[in-house]
Design a protein that fits this description.
Layout: E1 8-11, H1 17-27, H2 34-38, E2 45-52, E3 55-65, E4 68-76, H3 85-99, E5 104-110, H4 114-122, E6 126-137, E7 140-150
Parallel strand pairs: 4-5
Antiparallel strand pairs: 1-2, 2-3, 3-4, 5-7, 6-7
């Protein structure tokens, strides 16, 4: 893991959408559209990014309704994955959700996404359920694993 002190975490705005969409397309097999990402700016959402020298290297989108927070998306530029940026983002969004009186953070992850599952388990998430055949793959479907972390 590299020194994450060289990175800054900041709140993103719609001005960041082109960079977010680029990262989304590089990092996910079935990426969100730029329009889908654009829908995640507003009073129910926290959209944060990790930057280095003014360049967006990753982002996370959380929706919070009353006391339930949901991680909708987390994404890091592939060349920077495995360097602690996902962990930096996770710790930041968990801290923010707790400060905003959330009692739980929830998420869902592709069954095949072992690196993401490992990250989520590292920060205290555990499996709470499954959605059978929820995600499309290139050759069929795979389960969504539901995970949560109570505060």
């Amino acid at each position: 893991m590299h020194n994450t002190e060289a990175y800054s975490v900041c709140v993103l705005s719609p001005d960041n959408l082109p960079a977010m969409a680029t990262i989304e397309n590089q990092a996910h097999s079935h990426p969100w559209t730029e329009a889908g990402l654009a829908d995640c700016f507003g009073p129910l959402y926290r959209t944060i990014g990790v930057m280095q020298h003014g360049e967006l290297l990753g982002f996370a989108i959380v929706q919070q309704i009353i006391d339930e927070a949901t991680l909708l998306d987390i994404c890091v530029v592939p060349a920077y994955q495995g360097q602690g940026l996902g962990l930096l983002l996770m710790r930041h969004i968990l801290s923010e959700a707790k400060q905003a009186q959330a009692v739980v953070m929830m998420l869902e992850v592709r069954e095949s996404n072992t690196s993401a599952k490992g990250l989520y388990e590292k920060v205290g998430f555990s499996e709470s359920g499954r959605r059978k055949n929820y995600y499309q793959t290139n050759n069929g479907n795979e389960d969504a694993i539901l995970m949560d972390k109570p505060f």
